[in-house]
Design brief:
By secondary structure, the protein is α+β, with helices and mostly antiparallel strands. It has 18 helices and 27 strands.
Length: 586
């Protein structure tokens, strides 16, 4: 049968049309046939050899699907004319899987082959396969493997995996430092690691102890590196007791004049803070891990009728839900909340009858609240912040006047100490630890609402005015993120605010950023997972249960799930997830 056997019938001119017929699955069906033809060993025109194994294939298929072979076969390379090609240093199982992928578009990735396939895919320039392997590894990060994955990602220049590994190392430095991979790090790598501001540590003691473990693992080879590493440990942030009982008694420190000098410098700064300026300021700067993934606790606050609550609820950002947590021992609204060494503290507040001086602490792993030593002053609308070994409590309202008094609590001794008072009486101000200082922003003295800011230097014990905010604010929210200080919402005497401004300490400037979606006075603000979380508040009409988050990369606010048990006026704190629940990740 041929075309001459058919008569062609005319089509009327006014009926002529044309259309494009497209069989969308012809390519996938064709490649399935290519795969079958290869299995039968037909028309194969190239053999790829690795070690003692050989794989037959079709040049046209390899050139069409694998960039490495496309360049080899179409750019007149010597291999383009060969039927047998040997690849050096390639894993045979990985090559077999990737050649099969070139015919089917499918590849099975598992724990035993993912690293070999990732290396092979990078060599063959199969970026999507490499990225799929990176996604698999991201979901299997653990303190015992993250340093190895980070090295692999660096060698393959896989930026996505590099970033995820870096975040994980920052968040779980202590757990990572206890693993064998940490002890195998080169001097260059450990120096870069412990010099980072972004490490999450409960205490700088964890960094010191990690350095000592690394040096002792190969003491003869590494002892000479100790002074260069010790200078990166922020010894002035350690307590005098730890310096005397642990650092000074460490045999490796005793053996080094340079290390003893660094220890003496730290002691001098604690005893004579006026000498602080003689040392690098970085040694006084607390480490802050802004990418920390934590449970957000909303504590106390108000009902929609204005009654004080003992209720506590907690937000799980992985599951994206709020749930009821263990209640405090008493009702508290306008309560000060701080987190210190993975425990949540509630200071003072108002119980509906009187202002409180009482304090209680929540142990997340044990799931209970415990009353501890009371403050020396009754305080509601109080600001609190944790810095190094202490929690600072600033200002507030005692039922009669706005306060300028400041006291600090030492969790190790359960004792309070009165400090020098602030320059202004401040109730409903924002208090935050930032770059080694305690900042107090805005607030009011009963007559005036402030835009002013002052900060306390724990080394000198002095309060100093710093750059004022752009707006007057009391009942504001404050938090730090990526080296900047944010102030949001509040009340200026006539307007409930939704504006947000940010302070850049490098430029010594405030500037407005995107406003919140809602007006919020009594706004609670925390940083978590690289974002700001504005929680609850009051919009001038109602107490709020709503929550919104700010992403500094896009300068946008987005609503998050609302609280389930509060209508505003809460205090908030963030506890790292695997500290609140050790089974969340590991």
């Amino acid at each position: 049968m041929d075309f001459e056997d058919f008569e062609m019938f005319p089509i009327k001119e006014n009926d002529q049309q044309q259309f494009l017929f497209h069989e969308s699955d012809i390519f996938s069906q064709g490649f399935m046939i290519f795969e079958e033809i290869r299995r039968q060993g037909k028309f194969c025109d190239v053999t790829i050899k690795v070690e003692d194994q050989s794989f037959s294939a079709h040049k046209i298929v390899l050139a069409a699907t694998i960039p490495y072979f496309h360049a080899m076969f179409l750019n007149n390379m010597a291999e383009s004319k060969l039927n047998d090609i040997t690849l050096q240093g390639f894993d045979p199982l990985a090559l077999e899987s990737l050649i099969n992928f070139s015919y089917s578009g499918k590849i099975m990735i598992n724990q035993s082959n993912v690293q070999r396939i990732m290396i092979g895919a990078s060599f063959l320039q199969l970026q999507k396969v490499r990225d799929a392997c990176a996604s698999f590894l991201k979901n299997h990060l653990h303190p015992t493997n993250v340093l190895g994955f980070h090295e692999l990602a660096n060698r393959l220049n896989c930026t996505v995996l590099i970033e995820e590994c870096s975040k994980f190392i920052n968040q779980y430095f202590h757990q990572v430092s206890l693993c064998d991979e940490f002890l195998q790090l080169s001097f260059f790598d450990i120096k870069n690691l412990i010099g980072k501001d972004e490490l999450y540590v409960v205490s700088e003691a964890q960094v010191f102890e990690a350095v000592i473990r690394w040096v002792k693992y190969k003491k003869d080879e590494r002892l000479h590196n100790l002074p260069q590493l010790l200078i990166l440990v922020r010894l002035p942030l350690l307590s005098p007791e730890y310096l005397v009982d642990h650092v000074a008694k460490e045999e490796l420190i005793k053996q080094s004049h340079e290390c003893r000098d660094l220890l003496d410098d730290a002691k001098d700064c604690l005893l004579m803070p006026e000498r602080r300026h003689l040392l690098d300021s970085a040694r006084f700067r607390p480490r802050i891990c802004d990418d920390l993934v934590g449970h957000i606790f909303a504590v106390g606050g108000l009902t929609k009728f204005g009654n004080s609550l003992s209720t506590v609820e907690v937000f799980n950002p992985i599951k994206n839900v709020w749930r009821i947590s263990e209640a405090m021992t008493m009702d508290r609204s306008r309560v000060g909340v701080a987190v210190h060494q993975n425990k949540l503290y509630a200071f003072g507040g108002y119980n509906g009858v009187e202002r409180l001086s009482t304090v209680e602490v929540y142990y997340p792993t044990l799931k209970y609240w415990k009353i501890i030593s009371s403050m020396q002053c009754k305080r509601s609308a109080v600001g609190t912040a944790s810095l190094n070994d202490y929690i600072y409590v600033c200002g507030g309202y005692d039922g009669v006047i706005s306060l300028n008094t400041v006291e600090r609590y030492c969790p190790a001794t359960d004792k309070w100490q009165m400090l020098r008072s602030m320059n202004k009486h401040r109730s409903a101000g924002g208090v935050i630890a930032f770059e080694g200082y305690i900042y107090v922003l805005g607030g009011h003295d009963g007559l005036s609402i402030f835009d002013s800011v002052e900060r306390y230097d724990p080394q000198t014990g002095i309060w100093t005015p710093v750059k004022s905010m752009l707006s007057r604010r009391c009942r504001l929210g404050v938090a730090t993120l990526y080296g900047k200080l944010y102030a949001c919402g509040g009340y200026d005497g006539s307007t409930f605010s939704q504006s947000v401004e940010v302070y850049d300490p490098q430029k010594d400037t405030w500037e407005y950023v995107a406003p919140m979606n809602m007006m919020r006075s009594r706004a609670a603000l925390v940083s978590n997972m690289g974002k700001l979380w504005a929680i609850g508040g009051y919009d001038g009409v109602s107490n709020l249960s709503t929550v919104e988050t700010y992403d500094p990369r896009t300068n946008t606010w987005t609503f998050a799930p609302s609280m389930c048990a509060h209508e505003g006026g809460v205090g908030v704190g963030v506890i790292r997830m695997n500290d609140a629940d050790p089974n969340v990740y590991f």
